[in-house]
Design goal:
This protein has 736 residues and is mainly alpha-helical. Strands 1-2 form a two-stranded antiparallel sheet. It has a two-stranded antiparallel sheet with strand order 3-4. Helix 27 crosses helix 32 (591-605), helix 28 (507-531) packs antiparallel against helix 30 (548-576) and helix 30 crosses helix 33 (619-643).
Length: 736
């Protein structure tokens, strides 16, 4: 070898044999070739090197110089002379060359370093090189080179792992048993071997290459099979869409757009050589191993996770517990503030927490409450989140993201002792009363009996009152419609009426009424927007106005202030104006109102032929008016309670706030349905006024309407008019 002092030592009969063979060779050359010495042949070399005992001593180590003729003749170099490779050798001299150098294969194979990109160091190394990873014989051997197109070639798909493993034994051991190796053993032509991946520069073992370029090359390599190769795609379960979703992930974005060479690619999660199906417990992406895999980059977060209820369950090999990929996704992991991410603020509760915590199977198996999700969804927080709020609490706001612990854990953020601090993040001034009452209130009898009975009572009232109103109006409609029909058919004579107009509402009263109508329906509209955020009309508004929820909240409060202000003015109007006092007096309930209602029902059901006669306000208007007064008081009180939540929860506990919210909700339904069923019928669909009673716009009604709806008031007005007329005539006569 070059640079070494070589000495040939002969042992046993080797010296004698070599001298004899050399002498004979020289003799025959001189005999048959005259005085000129012809080119040295392989036979000349083998005359000595076919001796199995031929050795040399190099640096104290005995090295065989034996060359097996059959091996040499079966190699691709069989037609070449020995001196084609062993240049400058003189068989007459021993050693044959003063400085024996390594064989330089590049003399013939000039483009080998380029083709062997998996050993990129060959390009930089001075050839011929001595290190096995830099020269050819390290892989291909010396005289025993096997032709590429034979089954004995060591780098066929079936043998290459073993061949490469002679040097890369640790890597080969990892590869053996991998999914790729299993497919190789099955003879799958699409399965990758060492050269499938390492035909280009995809590793940075020595750390002297551009890490970013290496990462990009690795990604392209994996995609070349798992995305671009139909033979591979047809044999794997993940779809192309699933695999390519990595391109939209936070990892790919960091790699491609930000040039972050530390961003994770395929091999960071799946490893380079030990790739195993995710269903195999040995796999780095097997569910129980995922936290450890993610911890390579996200060590701090995984440490927090391991202390959580989920992390401890995974440590106990509970396959139902969530790991990183259950929440963040697998390939398409998006940044937490990406609107499409499952862990985005608006998606976390519905897409991440809900699937497990609303699962009947899981809640039954682990004894968890099955209504936590539904109670959150119907809570203010859940409804506001669905409605588009960007500030309201989601699950992680209270329970944490990675440090989720049982409420019984003293270190849990939702432990009763810690709720003051947890709630205080959003509710400044939160005190111990925030922990009194169910956080996830459900109005279920066993869990929240008080809320249950309030809800049940209101439901009974709504169905009975609104149902009674509906039946009352249907019967009234039928009787009046029948009367109108009989008049048109001439079976009943139509009464003649004058053409006079009678004042029903003054301008002040119409303004009060208009203010009430606008504020009431604005409150209903914006209130139900919160309660039913998924309704088609709410979704349509959100699509047009992205910040609709913020506007809804402001508009709702403005409408509430207007309604309360209008109610206070009306109270002033009743007390301090002459007409107002008369209005209040006429609206007072009387025993006659109950009698009128009974008589009206008798008449409408056909038990009486006499239609009851009403004064200025019948039991219909009075019941509606006082229901409005009651509803306004209740809605105002509970609304203030809900508006200033921090103050009132601190004073009356979380349970008190839940009571106010429950009453506010059901009272709103009762008021809204009463207006629709009761009020709208009598001012719009009532056959006596259809298509509409215009008193709320014009302030007056016709004499016919007065005769139909308020005959006693009409008589009183006419009586007073007659008396006034008589009085005026008397005054005129006196003046005459």
């Amino acid at each position: 070898m070059a640079g070494y002092h070589l000495s040939i030592c002969f042992k046993g009969n080797s010296m004698v044999k070599l001298l004899i063979k050399s002498s004979l060779s020289i003799y025959f050359v001189l005999l048959f070739g005259g005085i000129s010495i012809h080119a040295q042949t392989n036979e000349d070399c083998l005359s000595c090197h076919s001796d199995e005992t031929l050795t040399k001593d190099q640096n104290g180590k005995e090295i065989s110089l034996f060359v097996k003729e059959s091996v040499l003749k079966s190699s691709p170099h069989a037609k070449l002379q020995c001196t084609a490779c062993h240049t400058g050798f003189d068989m007459d001299n021993i050693p044959h060359k003063e400085n024996i150098e390594p064989i330089n294969c590049l003399t013939c194979h000039k483009n080998v370093p380029v083709k062997h990109a998996f050993h990129p160091q060959m390009l930089k190394a001075k050839q011929p090189a001595t290190s096995p990873d830099l020269n050819c014989k390290g892989c291909h051997g010396t005289h025993d080179i096997v032709p590429k197109n034979t089954s004995s070639f060591p780098f066929t798909k079936a043998k290459i792992v073993s061949a490469c493993g002679k040097c890369h034994n640790a890597i080969a051991a990892t590869f053996l048993g991998s999914t790729h190796d299993e497919e190789l053993q099955k003879g799958n032509a699409a399965a990758p071997d060492c050269l499938t991946c390492h035909h280009g520069t995809i590793s940075n073992k020595n750390g002297n290459r551009n890490t970013l370029e290496i990462k990009l090359s690795q990604e392209r390599l994996c995609f070349s099979c798992h995305v671009d190769n139909p033979n591979v795609r047809s044999k794997i379960a993940p779809t192309v869409k699933f695999i390519k979703s990595y391109e939209n992930s936070v990892h790919s974005t960091a790699l491609h757009k930000k040039g972050n060479s530390k961003a994770a690619t395929c091999i960071d999660c799946h490893t380079a050589h030990g790739i195993i199906k995710g269903t195999d417990s040995r796999s780095t992406v097997f569910k129980l191993n995922v936290p450890q895999t993610c911890s390579k980059c996200h060590g701090g977060i995984v440490s927090e996770y391991k202390e959580s209820a989920h992390g401890k369950a995974i440590a106990n090999r509970n396959m139902d517990a969530p790991v990183c990929t259950d929440c963040h996704g697998e390939h398409n992991i998006l940044k937490h503030n990406d609107p499409s991410s499952p862990v985005a603020y608006k998606n976390l509760s519905s897409q991440v927490c809900s699937p497990c915590h609303s699962s009947v199977r899981l809640t039954d198996r682990y004894g968890m409450s099955s209504n936590k999700v539904s109670s959150y969804v119907t809570s203010y927080h859940g409804l506001a989140l669905k409605g588009g709020s960007r500030e309201v609490a989601n699950c992680a706001s209270c329970h944490g993201a990675h440090t989720i612990k049982s409420a019984s854990d003293p270190t849990s953020s939702v432990n009763k002792a810690n709720l003051k601090h947890t709630c205080g993040r959003c509710h400044p001034g939160a005190n111990e009363n925030f922990a009194i009452g169910k956080i996830h209130s459900t109005a279920v009898e066993k869990e929240d009996p008080l809320l249950y009975w309030i809800s049940t009572t209101y439901l009974f009232l709504i169905f009975s009152i609104i149902g009674g109103m509906f039946i009352h109006n249907i019967v009234d409609l039928f009787r009046k419609a029948k009367t109108k029909l009989l008049i048109r058919r001439g079976r009943i004579d139509e009464e003649e009426h004058g053409h006079g107009l009678y004042l029903r509402m003054t301008l002040s009263e119409r303004i009060q009424h208009g203010t009430l109508v606008i504020s009431f329906f604005t409150l209903v509209f914006t209130g139900f927007m919160l309660r039913f955020p998924d309704a088609w009309w709410v979704a349509g508004i959100r699509n047009i106005l992205p910040h609709a929820f913020d506007l809804r909240s402001i508009i709702h409060r403005i409408a509430a202030v207007i309604m309360v202000s209008g109610s206070l003015y009306h109270f002033y109007y009743l007390l301090f104006t002459v007409r107002g006092r008369k209005l209040g007096y006429d609206l007072l309930p009387r025993i006659q109102d109950a009698k009128d209602m009974v008589n009206a029902l008798k008449y409408n059901f056909g038990f009486s032929e006499e239609k009851p006669r009403f004064g200025r306000f019948s039991y219909i208007e009075k019941s509606e008016y006082w229901a409005l007064v009651w509803g306004t008081i209740i809605m105002t009180m509970t609304g203030i309670f809900l508006w200033f939540d921090n103050t009132f929860i601190g004073l009356f506990t979380k349970l008190g706030w839940d009571i106010a919210r429950t009453v506010h909700y059901y009272e709103a339904w009762l008021a809204f349905l009463a207006i629709i069923v009761w009020h709208f019928y009598f001012i719009i669909f009532n056959p006596d006024v259809y298509p509409m009673n215009l008193a709320w716009l014009k302030g007056t009604i016709t004499e016919e309407e007065m005769e139909d709806e308020h005959p006693l008031e009409l008589e009183e007005i006419k009586r007073q008019a007659y008396q006034q007329e008589v009085k005026n005539e008397d005054n005129e006569n006196k003046n005459i």
